[in-house]
Design goal:
Blueprint: E1 5-7, E2 10-12, E3 18-22, E4 29-34, H1 38-56, H2 60-76, H3 78-89, H4 93-110, E5 118-126, E6 135-145, E7 148-152, H5 158-171, E8 175-179, H6 186-198, E9 205-207, H7 213-221, E10 227-231, H8 234-247, E11 250-254, E12 260-263, H9 269-276, H10 278-281, E13 293-297, H11 298-313, H12 333-349, E14 352-355, E15 371-374, E16 391-397, H13 400-408, E17 412-413, E18 415-419, H14 423-432, E19 437-440, E20 454-455, E21 458-459, H15 465-470, E22 472-480
Parallel strand pairs: 7-8, 7-10, 8-9, 10-11, 12-13, 12-18, 13-16, 15-16, 18-19
Antiparallel strand pairs: 1-2, 3-4, 5-6, 6-22, 11-21, 14-15, 17-20
Family: Belongs to the aldehyde dehydrogenase family.
Domain Aldehyde dehydrogenase: 11-477
GO molecular function, one term: oxidoreductase activity, acting on the aldehyde or oxo group of donors, NAD or NADP as acceptor
């Protein structure tokens, strides 16, 4: 089926035709995605601008009810939506159901409740002066919608990532233009259908896609856009930030990561191996929060490398539709070549390939074997740059100060991890790490905790109530009394 754009409440034929979306496991065509022209993207932004006035004035309860209906529609279609997600992204069936479509439904449900949008500020007693006589001045802080928000989403999780932007933005009264990743946009059009069925007014949600950089550039640069929310690479984030800076647009940036996992000598190694091992399997390492840079204290270094290598070697690689599969393919042939080039670079830099390192013997699909690079040093490119694949580097350290220094010897600062049985030390180390989040003896997430990065890993925070803050402006209302 030829997909259509969603602009101003209408399903529109794309000016520039369609392009094939490829299943990374079978290399077959999943469907045909629309190629929008820059003019169509600007039309979507204009439709969002026109719809903003009335949508921003709707009661928060009405907006919440719409998001709740969308959540139920998505839940009811979990299986077909997850089948499409699996075909587009290469995620396993279990991952597509629970962590893509399931999380998307949960995020719509999360924002289908009213949150306080205003709160009192303590009154202030002003003495007489040039601004008037002595008086008590009261104030109220009010959260107002930003306006039109362009959401540029990532390819690794089109359902959860898009829902995490759309739901809080709409809940706050913003209107939205979504530009999905070109590799897997079909899921986002299914999300638009669910919202349309839930009753989203014309122009409040718009979806435009395309492979050309002009599509994203038009969605970011449009004068109708007030804010850009982006998830993706740091390099693209910098270009978007330049445009936002020139035009004073608000921005929310969730960028790259090179998560450091500090494993101390007293750590539960089985827990550390299981947590770090998710890098090998979860989205085939295509996740910015992955603990890809393992810092192992010397007394446990050899054992940790041995256990991580054994973990990687016993993972089942193959068809994501097979329930036995743990590791699926990467998103594209181009990305596979990039990941493989990093593994070869690691060899040249002196790293020891302790597991993986070769392409699995499968006839089709963009697969890479889970790879462990041992005996790395902090100056190696494989230990500094985001690979975004099932590749883990291990670096030894001696004491706490050296471990913290090595963790900070990186441009990124999204999520780091600490494994230690010494709880006071674990929390002490966590506070010393320059990262937006730190997991202590776990890779789990708390979906009400703020999420975002330090340094080259991003700007701003979202998730939970923090997402409502991200998609709003604060207005002060002051009066005498």
């Amino acid at each position: 089926m030829n997909e259509r754009l969603f602009i101003g409440g209408e399903w529109a034929e794309p000016d520039l035709g369609h392009y094939p979306v490829t299943d990374p496991a079978t290399e077959e065509t999943v469907g045909l995605a629309p190629e929008a022209s820059p003019e169509q993207v600007r039309a979507a932004c204009a439709a969002a601008r026109e719809a903003f006035g009335s949508w921003s004035r709707t009661r928060p309860g009405e907006r919440a009810a719409l998001l709740g209906r969308a959540a139920e529609i998505i839940r009811a279609r979990l299986v077909p939506y997850a089948d499409l997600a699996r075909a587009e992204t290469g995620a396993t069936t279990a991952t597509a159901r629970a962590l893509q479509v399931g999380v998307a439904a949960a995020r719509f449900r999360r924002y289908a409740r009213e949150e306080p949008a205003e709160w009192p500020v303590p009154p202030q007693v002003n003495e007489a002066g040039p601004m008037g006589g002595a008086a008590v001045v009261s104030a109220l802080a009010v959260r107002q919608p930003v306006g039109v928000v362009t959401c540029v989403t990532s390819y690794n999780n089109p359902w959860a990532n898009s829902a995490g932007k759309i739901a809080p933005a709409l809940a706050m009264g913003n209107t939205v233009v979504v530009k999905p990743a070109p590799q897997d946009p079909l899921c986002v059009y299914r999300m638009a259908e669910a919202l349309e069925e839930a009753g989203v007014p014309r122009g409040v949600l718009n979806v435009v896609s395309g492979r050309a950089t002009a599509v994203g550039e038009a969605a970011v640069a449009s004068p109708d856009v007030d804010m850009v929310s982006f998830t993706g690479s740091t390099a693209v984030g910098r270009r978007i930030a330049e445009v936002c800076g020139r035009h004073m647009k608000r921005q929310l940036m969730e960028l790259g990561g090179k998560g450091a996992a500090l494993v101390f000598a007293d750590a539960d190694l089985s827990s550390a191996v299981a947590g770090i091992g998710t890098t090998f399997s979860f989205y085939s390492g295509q996740i910015c929060t992955a603990p890809t840079r393992v810092l192992a204290q010397r007394p446990v270094y050899d054992r940790l490398v041995e256990q991580l290598a054994a973990y990687a070697d016993r993972l089942t690689i193959g068809d994501p539709r097979d329930p036995a599969t743990v590791v699926g393919p990467l998103i594209s042939a181009e990305h596979r070549a990039r990941v493989e080039s990093y593994v070869e670079l690691g060899r040249k830099e002196g790293a020891v390939v302790a597991a993986g390192g070769a392409r699995p013997a499968l006839e089709k699909g963009f697969y890479v074997s889970p790879t462990l690079l041992a005996d790395c040093t902090s100056d190696m490119r494989v230990a500094r740059e985001e690979i975004f694949g099932p590749v883990v580097c291990v670096i030894p350290f001696d004491d706490e100060d050296e471990g913290v220094a090595l963790a900070g010897d990186c441009d990124y600062g999204l999520v780091d991890y600490v494994w230690s049985a010494d709880v006071p030390r674990a929390f002490r180390v966590a506070r010393r790490l320059r990262a937006g989040g730190v997991g202590i003896n776990t890779v789990a997430r708390n979906m009400e905790a703020p999420f975002g990065g330090f340094g080259q890993s991003g700007v701003g925070r979202d998730v939970g109530v923090y997402a409502l803050h991200a998609y709003s402006e604060v207005q002060a209302i002051v009066w005498p009394g």
